[in-house]
Amino acid sequence: MSRLVRGRLFDRNPLRRASDRAETVVLIMLVVVFLMSAPLVALASGAWAHASAQRSELAQAASWHKVTAVTLVAPGPPALGSGNVASEAKAHWIAPDGTSVTGDLPVPYGTEVGATFRVWVTPDGHLVQQPMSDSQVANLTVAAEAGGVVAVAIVVALAGVLTRWLFNKRRMTEWDADWQATGPRWTTHA
What we know:
membrane; MT1774/Rv1733c-like; transmembrane
């Protein structure tokens, strides 16, 4: 780290080329761009994700309903090696639109026939997970904010890598031209 900083100082070192100083200025500007844009991008991506997740939460809460399902068949044992203690059993429930639905319901192993469970369903009776909670909305917001900052960091890092590559390419071209001019004076042809 100290070597990186030492190579970026604005001093009167005669070996430090103008391209070295220009590269330092560009890298400093990229750090400033990151420090200024990361909070703004975090706020914008967080606000967008929060609004989107909140719309989903409200839509799910408005359209999904909790109904009572009754098991019709005892569940079989869980699949070997799955690590689950839950199985699936045939169950019956009435959809919010009044249709009778029979389907597979995840239940704990050992559930008796006739056991009742409260489940979330769509208006036409398809099983769904429970609607999003406020904490899930908050988690999605934080994840989007972090993702925005990471995206800015990647863009700035790629810009830094590209800058360094372009300056190195230019330095190698200059070095090659200098060597072509200096090399013949050092070598003697006998």
